[in-house]
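Incident log, structure service

09:12 report received: a user says their structure output differs between two submissions of the same chain.
09:20 pulled the input from the user's history:
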Amino acid sequence: MTLAGSRGILTVPSLIVHVIWEITSINGVFDIRGMSVQKGEGMIIIDYKDTRPIYEQIVERFKTLILKGAMQADEQIPSVRSLAMELSINPNTIQKAYAELERQGFIYTVKGRGNFVSGDSGLVDKRKKEYVGKILLLVSEVLEIGMSKAELIREIEML
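09:34 re-ran on a clean worker, output below:
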């Protein structure tokens, strides 16, 4: 399947749509879940095999781009209409994703101008605390089933 768009012909793999748009002021190369993002481009991937709703996938991709530093504070994100056209999905889906990103503090809206990446540096710290909580829960479960701390540490060090 191919799509014709403002960037030419795109080959669309069977259930995954890759959308690439220009992002300014990115410093360096970022690795996002095994995908490399080169300076000057970003990526939102919609996986139609994923059981999560599309808006949740969009929220997760933007959060990853923001937390990895691929999108800088006060940088404008694509408009609802342009991203909906690029992804070939309903604009209401994009609006729902943007509303969730705003609710979580990742973006803010300027009436008549668009949506922008929030400059809140506490987002990374908040995310780290969430992961530490999940890790501690898993560690306690592993210890409960009989694995020793030494075994656990050895496994972690092998990463």
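09:41 both user submissions now match this output. Likely a transient worker issue. Closing.
09:42 reviewer note: The helical segments are 54-67, 80-87, 91-103, 122-144, 149-157. The two ends are 39 Å apart (CA to CA).
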